[in-house]
Structures are given as structure tokens and as C-alpha cells.
Specification:
15 helices; 10 strands; alpha/beta; ten-stranded mixed β-sheet; disordered N terminus; D-Maltodextrin-Binding Protein, domain 2
């Protein structure tokens, strides 16, 4: 039987009929060889053609591409709303998975440090903690060409720490109080030292964003430099202690202290106001003339596994349309000047160029250098 489509194999008898001289054994062998070549060349060509056709069939089903995963380090506060307005829409846009590492600033930054800048793709921190990350080389520069929405933000938000991440929201440290339980409106930081607040206040823990601000405020009340004279600053902190029920460490904990009636006032960041007001409708933000600026930044750790996806996420977060949605739903203040809010919405936020320009800024390099010593003194005062 021959190869399919090429007919029968030649027989020796057929080959012998090829004309050669009588007794010419060598000629007979050459004819046989030439005939074999004529028959086997088409066979070889057919085999090569079959291989060419078969090869794509063997390789036409590549391994399924793995779905990329963006890992985000953040606080987890307002998680339900952030999932609704940020995470799910971004997943639909990028076709990726999103996972989280949650906790307070100090713990999360320490994890990134232990891992040498690996483990997460995007990291949310307040500016005091992101400044530590910048100084210790934990973050990589953010390419503004890959996140063009940064360029349209308020100037303060675009590059608060140089080439690294932008501020996606600007906030204030101030005082929240329940007007239904306070004899007179709070109009000054020094009001918190009044005897009428004995056993009715909460302060942010010293390791939180707002905690070191208490030391700055106490130093201002005492008329001393908190860096040059921490003893004098903490003497004023100790004078405030009788009014303090508890130090809080998370926004959720502060909301609970107000909702249960354990406190009537607290030093706080303004992003907690909406949730506190939902629990206590009579809660108000004190109209202080010297509120302290806090910038929430978003950075890409140095060894992030998905830096391109991280840039895409940062650009998404800085989008004016999303910023407006988050502000209207009580999540974060917008940093895009094109966002317009109704007066009722705007009053709970650090909103508008005029307000942002009036905020008191903190030297976070000096503050971070003093923080360890302040923490020890704080723990002595509050028995921790």
C-alpha cells in the first residue's frame, strides 16, 4: 500500500523494465535509486505539509491569561461606600480583582517597611505617615503622564511630597461637639480645657494622624515650643487629662463614643463628621479660625507587583466625576476645583480654594522626628 494519494509503491520488476545495458548491474541500481527518489520526495513533502497543518492545532489553545489583582493598603473606614463607588466600578473598568490590607497608618506602613516595599500595589496614608515612607525609600515616583487627572487638582494636592503620590483629599483636624449637650458653642481650642468638659472628651491616640496635633495645641496654650520644650507641652497635656474619658484610635471608635453618649466633644478629622452626624444629628464642626491641614495621599510602594494598574487606579480616584460622587455621599472632600457642591454638602468638607489656603500646615519632618519621645511622654500621662 502506498502513501495516501500517491498510488502503489514501485516493484522491483517494474524498475527492472527501465532500459539498461545487459549485465549493467550498476546502471540497474542507479535507476532504482532515481525511482525511489522520485517516489519519496513527494512523500517527504506531504509529511512536511501535514506537520505544518498540525502544528497550529497543537498550539492554538494557549494557557488562559491570569486575571490581574490590585492589592490596596488602606484604613477600611467607610468601606461599604468605597466599595460601592470606587472598588466595584474600577473592577468593571479594569477587569481585575481587588484585595485589601487594612489597619491604621502605623501598622500598615510598618508592614510595607518589613517587606521592603512589596506586598501591596497602592497605599493610602495621611501625609505625616507617607512622609516617613518617602524618607525611608518605600515608595516609587508616580508618573503623572500615566495619571493625568492629577494635573487638574488643587496645587496643594498635586505633589505634596514631590514626585511621589498626590493627595486625593484634603482635610482638617478640628473639634466636633454635640451642641445639645454643650452649654455654649466651642470657638477655640482652649475651650477643651474648661472644667465643664470633665470626663466628657475623647482625644485621638498619639499614634494616629491627629494625635500629635494635641501636643502642638497644648504647647500653643502653654506658650512653648513643643520641639524645644516637650516638658512644658506635656504639662499642658496633663492638665487636659481630667476631661478625657478615652483615647480613640479609629474613626469607627470615635463614632461609637459619640453615639453611646460617652463623650460630648473630641479633637477629630473632618471626614468623621458625616458618620457622627448620622448617629448624633446635633453634632457640629466647631468654626475654628486655625484648623490644621491633613492631606490623605495615595502612593505606589517601591516593589509593587502591578505598577501600571496602580497608576490606572490613582487616575481613577482623581477623576472629578468620582470625586464629586464621594463628596456628595459623605466619603471624602474633593481636590478637583471643577467639582461643585451644594452649600449643605460643602459645609462638612475642606472645600474651595479660600478654605484650603487658610489651613495651618505642619512640618511633618520635625513632627516625625519628635514622635517617639512624645509617644513615651503621652503614655506616661495616660497610663498606657
Amino acid at each position: 500500500m502506498g502513501f495516501h494519494g500517491l498510488g502503489p509503491w514501485p516493484t522491483i520488476e517494474a524498475l527492472e523494465r527501465v532500459t539498461v545495458a545487459p549485465g549493467d548491474t550498476r546502471g540497474r541500481q542507479m535507476n532504482i535509486a532515481r525511482a525511489n527518489r522520485r517516489r519519496f520526495l513527494p512523500v517527504a513533502a506531504a509529511i512536511a505539509s501535514l506537520a505544518a497543518v498540525s502544528a497550529p492545532l497543537l498550539t492554538a489553545t494557549p494557557a488562559r491569561a491570569q486575571t490581574p489583582t490590585l492589592t490596596i493598603s488602606w484604613w477600611g473606614f467607610n468601606g461599604d461606600k468605597l466599595n460601592q463607588f470606587v472598588i466595584e466600578p474600577f473592577k468593571a473598568q479594569c477587569g481585575c480583582n481587588v484585595v485589601f490590607e487594612t489597619g491604621n497608618n502605623a501598622d500598615r506602613l510598618n508592614k510595607i517597611k518589613i517587606r521592603g516595599g512589596a506586598g501591596v500595589d497602592v497605599a493610602y496614608f495621611t501625609d505625616s505617615f507617607s512622609q516617613i515612607g518617602v524618607k525611608e525609600g518605600l515608595f516609587q515616583p508616580v508618573d503623572r503622564a500615566k495619571a493625568p487627572n492629577i494635573a487638574t487638582a488643587h496645587e496643594l494636592a498635586r505633589a505634596p511630597q514631590g514626585q511621589f503620590g498626590p493627595a486625593y483629599t484634603i482635610g482638617r483636624v478640628g473639634i466636633i461637639y454635640d451642641r445639645a449637650k454643650v452649654a455654649a458653642p466651642i470657638t477655640s481650642w482652649n475651650d477643651l480645657w474648661k472644667p465643664e468638659f470633665k470626663g466628657k472628651l475623647s482625644l485621638p491616640g498619639i499614634t494616629t494622624t491627629a494625635g500629635p496635633m494635641v501636643v502642638l495645641l497644648a504647647a500653643a496654650k502653654a506658650g512653648v515650643d513643643p520641639y524645644a520644650n516637650p516638658v512644658g507641652a506635656f504639662r499642658a497635656v496633663a492638665e487636659l487629662k481630667p476631661n478625657v474619658v478615652k483615647n480613640y484610635n479609629t474613626g469607627s471608635e470615635l463614632v461609637n463614643l459619640f453615639s453611646t453618649g460617652e463623650i460630648v466633644a473630641s479633637i477629630a478629622q473632618d471626614f468623621t463628621l458625616a458618620q457622627i452626624q448620622r448617629a448624633v444629628p446635633t453634632a457640629e464642626w466647631a468654626p475654628l479660625p486655625d484648623a490644621i491641614a491633613t492631606l490623605n495621599t495615595i502612593n505606589i510602594p517601591r516593589r509593587a507587583a502591578n505598577p501600571d494598574l496602580a497608576h490606572r487606579f490613582i487616575n481613577f480616584v482623581m477623576d472629578p466625576a468620582l470625586q464629586k460622587t464621594l463628596a456628595e455621599n459623605g466619603v471624602d472632600a474633593p481636590v478637583q476645583p471643577s467639582v461643585e457642591l451644594a452649600p449643605a454638602q460643602a459645609k462638612q468638607w475642606t472645600y474651595g480654594a479660600e478654605m484650603i489656603a487658610g489651613l495651618k500646615r505642619v512640618d511633618h519632618d520635625k513632627l516625625n522626628a519628635a514622635k517617639d519621645g512624645w509617644t513615651e511622654r503621652w503614655n506616661e500621662v495616660f497610663g498606657m
